[in-house]
Amino acid sequence: MDEKALVMLSGGLDSATCLYWAKEKFSDVSAITFNYFGRLVQEKRAAGKLAKGAGEVKLIQVDLPFVKEASDFYDGRFQEHDSDALWSSYVPARNLMFYSIAAHYAEYLGAKWIIGGHNLHDVNFFKDASKDYIEKLNTLFKEGCLLCNGEVYKILLPLSDMNRKEIIRLAIKLKTPIEKTWSCHRKGNLHCGMCYACKQRIEAFHSLGVKDPVFKRS
Asked: Domains in the chain, start-ordered, CATH in brackets?
């Protein structure tokens, strides 16, 4: 389609798949990534590599030093009781903030679509990743946009009804460079294999009988 899209690019498998999905669907694709407090260097690098590797994709980097994950805000309080790093990575109002900032850029860029990578698993814990929550944001954007000339930007969630296995199949079909993605929630040069994000990847790739290329480097 001859339309502009802005992809929320974290550097993980889901957002990378969305980037390559958007490249097939839309003529003009940009990406946006958020450098919040303590964001992993590997994740930042992954976002940069993915945007660069996708061709003519401008990457907008937004620094948000005041936004902290729960583990940083509470000085590691959750770490002893959160072995899979799920609570530790929680950020209050994360998607309200991130999508609002994306909407700010989308309006100036003239982008019709804001592409988010939330999947079927996310809503089990992150309530602000549900389709209902996102639709409420879309309603607010529709009411507030003054430069849209009747073509209001809208958040689109292409992976919302997909589980991890289905996303991997789509990523492979789209020739997404999975080896460039970063999903791990712990510091290090390699995926830890122990946090909830790593466990999800390992389980899904194993069930498909496919080796995850990020672990081939391990």
From this structure: 4-177 (3.40.50.620)
